[in-house]
Amino acid sequence: MSALVPTPREPGLLERYRPLVADGALDALVGLARSLRGHRLVMVNSTATGGGVAEILRRLVPLLEDAGVPTRWEVMSGDARFHAITKRIHNALHGAPASLDASDWEHWLDTNRRAADTLELDGDLVLVHDPQPAALAWLRRRPGQTWVWRCHIDLSAADPAAWAALAPYVSRHDAAVFSHHAFVPPLPVPGFLVPPSIDPLSGKNRDMDADEERALLAPLDLPSALPWVTQVSRFDRLKDPLGVIEAHHLAQSRTPSLLVLAGGGADDDPEGAEVLAEVRARAEGLPHVRVLALPPDAHTTINALQRRSTVVVQKSLREGFALTVAEALWKRRAVVASAVGGIPLQVLHERTGVLVHSVEGCAYQLSRLLEAHALRQRLGRNGREHVRQRFLLPREATDYLAVFARAMALASERSAGLTLPRAAPAGRAAP
Amino acid sequence: MTEGVFAVESAVYLSRPAGPPVLDLEELRQALLGAGPEVLFHHVQLPRLRELDDDESSEDDFTVWVRGVLQDAAIAERLGFVVQSAATDAAAVRHALTTWLATLPPAVRRARRAPERGALALFAAEAVPVAVGDVPATLDGVFGALAGASGAAWLHHLVEPLWWPNHRAWLPARLREMGAGALAVQCEREGAGRRSMRQVRRRLLAAWRRGRLGQRVLVASGESEEARHEAEHEAARQLARRLTRRRTS
Fold first, then answer.
1. CA spacing 20 to 30 A to B12: which of A74, A114, A430, B109?
2. Is B248 helix (H, G, I), strand (E, B) or coil?
């Protein structure tokens, strides 16, 4: 039903980040951890493996531990129906039409009830990730605890009915955290913005020397005579892989290059397989386009691909945050990316990369960057610095601790009668 | 010099959405009329923490938005000047901006409208102070601690107090207590200016080091000739070491 995810302690982990992060950045993390001495933090989500949240928690929990905040990671689980329902909730919150009825929400709530009975939620700081465990604050909250809801989803076009059903439970937290201002819905609790981050020590982002890079890329058998233009993302229409091929084709007559479209395995995603087939069909007969379907754990290969590329593209039509952009900027790559979702927070136009709005714009900027070595270097240098300051894991860890510190201060003000207490979730009796 | 104590802190600046997005200059004027110091701090002062390699001064978010999204270079440069001239505290910035925007004809304020995706999102900054390290008791201790601190620590000690009066962590007040009046004046000037925090840190640390050198020469002038020679040699050695370090870095 529920499980503690073992996250081995990594003594000295914090110090491994010191040469990589901005000056004084770790001091803030350590200082906040010191000010929270005596508190225990519990992370709650619904999966220990697979998906971006689990990937973040696997690195975040040891980092917080090493900073001095005792942290445990609890995973709630449920039956197949629960997962089918939460997948639909997830899609509905992303804006897809929802088909959730009262019995679906009852099942979701029952599963949360069982998790509330079995999970060890005895920490006084609880960070709940995404909608699956969102009712726990209502069901299991104890006096003196501070609960924060972390939403990793783009709620900007959320299905109103789905959000209306979920919002009363989110409101039982002391604060909520979102990745982007456009994702923040109206809520009676304070909403904070905490952008996601990349881990500079992970296989996908760690430094590698030229020999290792060559060895990782050799099996891909990609021609090395031309500069590489690369887009790394799953095969999804919203990533516009056909648009990238079109833009590359337009740029080819002026500036020859090799286009590499690399994505994770699509075996368990029928639509992904369909899009991959479309992309392969479109690339058929184009000598300067390579389509790579990589296994899900090909992190170091992706790292090498990004490092070897002259330009990295992210021509998405819609995005959550697109951390592939931060990954490329961290590797000092020149980036051409669409001005959607969280990308403009990472790509500051003409300073850390270039933003585009069309196939033609993408083609124009590809040619421009492929021809301009000094410009690529300047953008790459600035991009690395921008990510160093704003999108590395220790900053995200620091922000979470700061949110808890702030939420506790606000709770103290509330208990002193400075603000009004919040109402119980609509339509349900308080537990 | 009187010895005092000063807790060197840093701050984590959290962002919270603050009202509906702004699409033109009239909406900007109306939003600014009701904007609290947290909002103005976010858009006028937090940009001073952006430290890209080619970034020596920092522009406020309003100016960047008018130039980049509304694409009105003439309005942007005048707006930038208004902020630059008034950026000493929140009330002054709000008054200067809203007054200047009101001088523009209504038709001009509505003339250029941002596309929906280019709307200016307003945020409030919530500062969470963070104690970092020990509490140094001397001027050298204070600057020694600040030398390794982040830009946020400098913003916390030099700029936040201008926005929130009676701020307990105002560095110039502590410097005056320690008898370093000239350094205090320079800190006030830098805090009220528009330089990025990286530049501010560089300039103030240089001023502090120059002061230390002068202090040592002053002390040595009352010493024996032998002691003066030794002090001069020590100062020269330190200068040489600094220059060597700078060259190698």
1. A74
2. helix
